[in-house]
Amino acid sequence: MIPGRVGKSKSKTTFVCQNCGAQRPRWEGRCSECGSWNTIVEEVTAAPADSRSKNTLSNKPVSLEVAPLQTENAPRLSCTIKELDRVLGGGLVQGSFCLLGGEPGIGKSTLILQMAAGLAKSGSDVLYISAEESVPQTGQRAKRLGINHPKIKIGTENNLESICELAKLQRPAVLVVDSIQTVYLPDLSSAPGSVSQVRECAGQLMNLAKSYNISVIVIGHVTKDGNIAGPKVLEHLVDTVLSFEGDQNHHFRLLRALKNRFGATHELGIFQMGSEGLREVANPSEMFLEERTTDAVGSVVFCSMEGTRPLLCEVQALTVKSPLPNPRRTAIGFDLNRVHLLIAVLDRHANLNLSFSDIFVNVVGGLKLIEPAADLAVAAALISTESGHPVDSTSVYFGEIGLTGEIRAVPFIELRIREADKLGFSKFYVAASNKKHIFDLPKDLVSKIIWVKHIRDLIDGTRRPMKAAPRATPLTI
Ligand code: TYD
Ligand code: MG
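A: This is the predicted complex of the input protein with magnesium ion.
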């Protein structure tokens, strides 16, 4: 029997790739859109009831309403959790649709429950619908987190139509749905979590958010490769995509804004998971450098910019002579292609031959560095491990490296230097071309900057890391 024909004349059978969401008229073994195998699944979708009349031109007057452009800031609800508010761009925008993605067990439900408590504290009514846990289970979690607020209403339901009805009736300021993969629309015959269910459910929630001015937060699971399960269209649809990351073996969790229609992206919020839930980390740089040993070979400190916040972290490198004909190159938290590039530049311009070495680069603490500004730190770590001599433990490195070995300017130089200074670092290796970006840095800090022009400036005559200022570049600003 063809499922599309079961008693519903207005439903349509399509074949949908569960990886990328592409729709095909017939089954294919390999998705011709994304190339993945065995991901095409037959799904039945409801056709719009009045699709024909919509397509026919009529003489009816148009009833489209237009309004003058409004430029005031959208009202925001405070979560009373500073890190969260900052990542959201200053609080949760009223009537916005926000998606929180993360691996199972990372702490999404905990974060959202704490967020709900914060929102309730600042006066917003919150309707928290869990489709994964029962009301007593959520209650247990709330008890553990010390949350008990009359403005938070908890419910458990999987049927999205019922959830929307309830929200329309109760009109909370915020609706939380945990999770988008476990709710379903009864009109669709495909299973909860399938591409059509996720897409349609998200569409309904979007309508609810915009028509009733309810801020909707949905939790989404991520697939093995780190993408939010469900079609990309989900990410296009929502206003904000937050990603909750972290290592199950470490206590800290990173909250990133991957997309934000109401604020900056790549803002980072840092939390620590403890026995009483998630705690904000006031000074993350200190935390990331906590276990660093001074004068370790192959260890260099870099100051990264995570959104608008400077963050110090440790970059490590290890090189060992390889027994393999094709030596191994591994990078954790840093782009492997950039490691290859740096190896080539060090070979050509710093006379550092790494062709026969296995090379490992690691960013400590599970951080992922996407900025090319980390090049200089990685290069310094490689020089240090290869020469067997530590870099000065009071120094910080930031700069992009070009193919001719030149060190290029990076943005936010003053912010980075101030953060490094706050944590007691006293030598800042910075691209000489960054001189023109120094405006109001105190003189004593400027005097601690070591301007570097070329990768050669990082090594002394014996190919060890520089201890003193290389070739004393004049400090003219
Ligand atoms: P949870 O929020 O259920 O994760 P998710 O919704 O992303 O699947 O968090 C689950 C983990 O967090 C679980 O392994 C236990 C841990 N946890 C704590 O360590 N402390 C706490 O106070 C809470 C509530 C959870
Ligand atoms: Mg959960």
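Residues 108-109, 132, 178 surround magnesium ion (ligand 2) (CB under 6 Å). Residues 20 and 232 are 7 Å apart (CA to CA).
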